[in-house]
Amino acid sequence: MARTQNDRQISRQQGVITLRSLLLLFTGGMLLLVLVAAASVSFDRFRDYMSGQLQGHARDGATAIGLSLSNAIDGRDPVASSSLIDAVFDSGRYLSVVYVNNQGEEVAGRETSLREVDVPGWFVALADLPLPVGEAEVVRGWSRLGKVRVVSHPGRAYEDLWVVTVRIVAGSALIGGLGLIGLFWMMTRLMRPLRAVEKQARALGKRDFRRRVDITSTRELNQVTHAMNQMADDLGRLFEGQAKLIQHLRKVNNEDSLTGLASRQAFEQRLKVEVESEERSAPGVLFLIQLEEFAQYNQSYGRDEADRLLVRIAGALNTFVHAHSDSFAGRMTGAGFAVFLPGVSRADGVIWCRQLVEELDGIYSDLSAPMDVSVHAGIAQAAETRKAGELMSAADEALRQAQMEEGSACHAADRDRPEHHDSEKWRIMIGEAITQGQMSLWMQPMISNGDNGVLFHQVFSRMRTEEGWIKAGIFVPMAERFGMIPDIDRWVLERSLALLHTEPDTRLALSLGMVSVASEAFRKELLEQLSAAGKERWRLQIGISEQAVHHHRTAVGLLVRGLNRLKVPVIVDRFGVGGVPFSYLRNLRFQALRIDNSFVHDIDSHDDNRFYLESVTTIAHSRGVRVYVTGVETAGEYAALQGVGIDGAMGYHLGRPFEVGH
Q: What's the rounded Cα separation, in Å, for the pair 124 and 162?
């Protein structure tokens, strides 16, 4: 919830006007105001000038006519006076010329209205030049004959004022435009370092400590930039230290220090989850592998060579595990190893075990020549009624039987137990379920640690067969192995988007298989479907397993960045068992971690797992990443997890899976 509020606050801050825009608006507005004021002053001054010119013109015209009527022409003669006035008026420079006697009676005169001028009408109304009247007396000798009144025609004045006004406006616009362009360029150049600092601050808000800003600006900005870079360096080093601590804790608690395989305790804990957990229990086979004559090899070649042999063997086991989805391996004793393959039948397990033993025997024989060495393996099949301890005992008994044979060998226990489906049977069943619509969408709630509300629902598929509904944990490893998981993921995605469309208050999460993540075609189709879904995609979270991050780093990077662009939340699934350094969270923007069940099972009685989970939660929260757990099956487990500070939990204790629509 806090994360959501923070995102909303950042969104509101991004919507506020920028400093550059504010400065441009203020400075540009002031510049325009100055130019408008200057243009207005220039217009008023020229208008006053033209008004004065009209006043002088009217006065001079009246004086000239008055003198002519007083001296050159007898002003007492109406005909002569009218001829003079007609000659003057016909020049077109006057609106009216009137000669009146002492009694105010018109002797002669001409008048006209304001003719059309070559300027817009609105400009004439705006300028509204005054029409001054020029007067002069007409005398004869010492006798006053009358008065001449003259009004000048303002048409030429309006035309001159219009031309000058256009030039003033054009000049102001040119100066203002150049000024705004220069101001924009200057602001852009000056604010470029500030924008870089803003991007760095935004990156720090998203816990991305990689961005740095070059110090090439003003003294004040340089100091801010230096402080931001220093803070980013310090936070980056802090996260690196935290990541190394997490990696160290994972190695100490879960990995064999020499081989990097799971330790005996971690292997047995994960095996217990796979075999006994109500949520994840699935058929499979367990291999117990023993390097015979290892004590003699150690004595003959020394400890360093013995360690090198074990590392080579562990490398071969890792390669084998990587080729079989969801399988895992561990070191049990000095030269004893274990491998569990979920969803595998005993017959297929025997075939793969023989191939593995043959490969290990080749490595062992090459390094131990001329010693006579061998590799033995015992195989036991998991079943719903069999506990993890019973499975280990059965595999150990099978190993003892194999050791009685000459040379390297495998021996399978439980030959009288019912055989589980072999690979070909699984392939047919999964293919028919996909093509014939024998799949069903199920969901399980993720419960908030704060208010026990539902954060979202995890969606997954179940397959209908003659035996009933088969859980995803049983058939998904086989679908991964056959490359059929993209079809299942595509089916789940389509149903999930349809559900989000019909139920606007629902939030969902779905997990992708490793083969789907590695497929370029599937990634492209996924992003296209999410893009077409509109805002509904924001209510869907995509889970990517940590093993996929480890084995398909480039593909995961492309997918995560694509989902980030679409604002689709991304979850790291099965966190803690991928064997990948925790520092990948610095380079990839995940919104949440989902801890693997093996760390949750019996956590109320495992202080080391609880301490590890507390450390992961603290560091993840410092990065703004939520922490979810799955596989909660008892009240004791949930109580312990609540004290750790997780954000949400899921499991049979909190809510059982249910079919969508039921």
A: 9
